[in-house]
Amino acid sequence: MKDVISIDFIKTPTADIKNLAELKRYWAKIKNLLVQREQHFDNVWKNSNEKQIFAELAFCLFTPQSKAVSCWAVVLELARQKMLFSSSAETISATIKNVRFHRNKAAYLIKARELFSDSGKIKIKSRLSAFSDIYELRAWLIKNVKGIGYKEAGHFLRNIGLGKDLAILDRHILKNLVFFGAIDQIPKNLSPKEYEKIEKKMLGFAAAAKIPMSHMDMILWCKESGGIFK
Asked: How far apart, in whole angstroms, are the C-alpha atoms of residue 158 and residue 93?
């Protein structure tokens, strides 16, 4: 489907990693797969059309409290039925019932479609290209795209090859940052200030481990789930 970019789940070994040295050995073991996925993200921005970039945004609007693989499946279904860029919130909601809070997320999709439309056509790459600073772009997305927070904005920007040094702080990543001593505890409330504070600590942890930040998120996911997706 030309409105989305195909992507497969890459299987990797799960690992019971007990210390940083073991994490680094695990990284070396799966590094080529991480590079492959990173190249995919880079190519999304370089080679995608407007609708394909918007489909990545739709995916990240759907992911909060839902499984990534299930969310991508509904994006593919919406694209297959030619609904992603034209159908009403009610019709989309009925199609994405496998996604939690599907009514709210369908409404978010419509709002995003309105935000990035110009004369009836999706124009998202030019809007994003106006920003030279990735942190300013993330802040703009959080402010202007309903349903997007720090985690979702970082996820979206990483998936389109623009957010290599942004943290995607979900519960799995936070748990691992505590385990490896990068942070003391998982915060009860992840406020914007706290998110940025932990992001800096994750950057420092990645630098100290000599593992690229762009790999650290994926590595910790592979450790937990045995695979790389989006």
From this structure: 26
Q: Is-catalytic flag, 170?
A: yes
Place of tokens 């990284």: 27
Burial call 107-134: b when 16+ CB within 10 Å, e when fewer: bbbbbbbeebeeeeebebbebbeeeeee
Residue 151 annotated as catalytic: yes
CATH assignment at residue 147: 1.10.340.30
What is the rounded CA–CA span in Å between residue 170 and residue 113?
A: 26
Residue 4 lies inside a defined structural domain of this protein: no
Q: Are 77 and 70 in contact (CB under 8 A)?
A: no
Domain assignment of residue 114, given as a range: 49-159
pLDDT tens digits along 155-201 = 999 999 999 999 999 988 999 999 999 999 999 889 999 999 999 99
Residue 5 within a domain: no
122, β-bridge pairs? 117
Query: Which member of 151, 217, 223, 230 is catalytic?
Result: 151
Q: How confident is the model at residue 3 (pLDDT cuts 50, 70, 90)?
A: confident
- Per DSSP, helices labelled H in the chain are 20-47, 50-62, 68-80, 89-95, 102-115, 125-129, 134-144, 150-159, 171-179, 192-209, 213-225
Of 31, 165, 170, 201, which one is the catalytic site residue? 170
